[in-house]
Amino acid sequence: MKTKIYRAKDRGTADYGWLKANYSFSFSNYYNPEKLNFGALRVLNDDTIDGGMGFGTHPHDNMEIITIPLQGSLKHRDSMSNKWIPIETGEVQVMSAGTGVQHSEMNNSPNEKINLFQIWIIPNEQGVEPRYDQKKFEASERKNKLQVLVSPISNEVEGSLTIHQNAKISRIDLDENTDFNYKIESEFQGVYVMVIDGEVQIDTETLTKRDAVGVEQTNNFEIKAIKKTQLLFIEVPMRF
Predict the structure, then answer these.
(1) Residue 176, annotated ligand binder?
(2) 76 annotated as belonging to a binding site for a ligand
């Protein structure tokens, strides 16, 4: 098993006043040649956005974009519908940019901050028709068991959202002193594990809030929750 530790304190950071950003991989003005991607995972940004603020209309193409609000409410508008759509904590949003789309992402509250993960995954198909979807996922359905949020269009997991890549995004909430075995789909896949909150041990390494580990070249691996813990798994092809 091959692992690489990504400590929260070593992430890139940016402070735009209205936006406090933490970059797991090179993004915007943050560049680290050793942190360009993890397989097909290109971006994992941990953003906190002030009330009434957000990202104005901007373009994307040929990227699978996933947004997971952790606290607060977001609103989305794009060139496919031109309507503001709220995305609440507990929901997940996916957008296939494909041939090209314009969109805006704003804090849906005028006063309260929002904290969210923004994830970009490099697609396995270029030039697809742009598409958008979102879904609510109940926290009770990931208590000590894996909850799949996003899966491949070509091999859809029932109840999940889908994207154009052989990738899977999942969450689990583990009780203290609970063990969990994560099974990787194939030898060509790796999984990026982010500790949303809590403390776990993976392969002798202890990880705490916003620490992460990339795991590859194994069929499965063990996780031990030292404290009550929330985990995010992003499983992607390592060659694409």
Answers:
(1) no
(2) no
